[in-house]
């Protein structure tokens, strides 16, 4: 029986049980891919991650990310939560407020700003979806590791009332402090609704930039997510012509050991 340090981190919140949890196995060199996938299926969270020493000298650590069904090259809230776990456990140290994460999407830059951690997301791959979706005539397919179909439903009330699956949708709240309400559905990964979704919010930012709607809200904004599933997440988003950053706070809810036979 081998023991691994283990944390469950709530992401995009400073209050335990109000964000999106990620399970983080720290120092997982002794686990092969099948064991990692089995653990991810057992935790039954949207993602479980495994912190490893970096293979590339420029990186602070290597991260592998698994849904209950398969491995992902990148995902947003697992990246922020795993960076929080790496720093809190001493597995990695920030240098001048910077971390570099090696993952399936390459080596990504992270910035630590007081209690918040931001990740510079992989460049989205975008194409138009012309089939009607949720009553709108067109949407965008945005690939940021996970692939999201993104639709603008107009206002937050329409998003609140939505009964759907398989996409990320957003609506305007009318509140400058929290510009959008976002919901993300991923049943293909065994996740009926993701409580607070980093990659979904990256996809929304890519949609806003691609369609020119970003001019309405400026280069930075905060989105809310998770109210329909009992959460209250806040995702901070920064968008420029050549990059998208998402970030937020994180808090450890479980801290102990994972025993693997």
Structure in a nutshell:
With 261 residues, this protein is an alpha+beta fold. The chain has helices at residues 33-43, 76-89, 156-160, 198-211; strands at residues 2-11, 20-26, 48-52, 61-66, 71-72, 98-103, 106-113, 116-120, 125-129, 139-143, 147-155, 168-175, 178-186, 191-194, 220-225, 233-239, 244-248, 250-260. The model has no long low-confidence stretch (mean pLDDT 93).
Task: Show the helix and strand layout.
Layout: E1 2-11, E2 20-26, H1 33-43, E3 48-52, E4 61-66, E5 71-72, H2 76-89, E6 98-103, E7 106-113, E8 116-120, E9 125-129, E10 139-143, E11 147-155, H3 156-160, E12 168-175, E13 178-186, E14 191-194, H4 198-211, E15 220-225, E16 233-239, E17 244-248, E18 250-260
Parallel strand pairs: 2-3, 4-6, 11-12, 13-15
Antiparallel strand pairs: 1-2, 1-18, 3-4, 4-5, 6-7, 7-8, 8-17, 9-10, 10-11, 12-13, 13-14, 15-16, 16-17
Largest sheet: 18 strands, mixed
Helix content: 10-25%
CATH superfamily of the largest domain: Diaminopimelate Epimerase, Chain A, domain 1
Q: Low-confidence runs (pLDDT<50, min 5 residues)?
A: none
- Work out the radius of gyration: 17 Å
Mean pLDDT over the residues: 93
The geometry reads as globular
Order of helices and strands: EEHEEEHEEEEEEHEEEHEEEE
CATH architecture title of the largest domain: Roll
Q: How many runs of DSSP E, i.e. beta strands?
A: 18
CATH topology category name of the largest domain: Diaminopimelate Epimerase, Chain A, domain 1
Q: How many structural domains can be distinguished in the coordinates?
A: 2
Strand content: over 45%
Distance between the termini: 4 Å
CATH class call of the largest domain: Alpha Beta
Task: Decide which structural class fits the backbone.
Answer: alpha+beta
Per DSSP, the total helix count is: 4
């Amino acid at each position: 029986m081998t023991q691994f340090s283990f944390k469950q981190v709530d992401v995009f919140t400073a209050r335990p049980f109000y964000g999106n949890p990620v399970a983080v196995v720290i120092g997982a060199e002794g686990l092969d891919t099948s064991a990692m996938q089995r653990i991810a299926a057992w935790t039954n969270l949207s993602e479980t991650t495994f912190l490893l020493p970096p293979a590339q000298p420029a990186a602070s650590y290597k991260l592998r990310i698994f849904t209950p069904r398969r491995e992902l090259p990148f995902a947003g809230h697992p990246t922020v939560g795993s960076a929080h776990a790496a720093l809190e456990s001493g597995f990695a140290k920030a240098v001048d407020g910077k971390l570099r994460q090696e993952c399936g999407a390459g080596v990504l830059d992270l910035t630590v700003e007081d209690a918040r951690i931001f990740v510079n997301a992989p460049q989205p791959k975008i194409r138009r979806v012309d089939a009607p979706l949720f009553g709108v005539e067109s949407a965008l397919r945005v690939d940021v590791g996970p692939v999201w179909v993104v639709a603008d439903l107009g206002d937050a009330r329409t998003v609140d009332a939505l009964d759907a699956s398989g996409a990320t949708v957003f609506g305007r709240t009318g509140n400058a402090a929290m510009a959008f309400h976002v919901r993300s559905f991923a049943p293909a990964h065994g996740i009926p609704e993701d409580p607070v979704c980093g990659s979904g919010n990256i996809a929304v930012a890519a949609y806003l930039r691609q369609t020119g709607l970003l001019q309405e809200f400026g280069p930075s904004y905060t989105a809310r997510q998770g109210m329909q599933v009992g959460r209250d997440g806040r995702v901070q988003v920064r968008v420029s012509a050549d990059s998208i950053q998402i970030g937020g706070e994180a808090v450890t809810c479980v801290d102990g050991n994972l025993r693997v036979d």
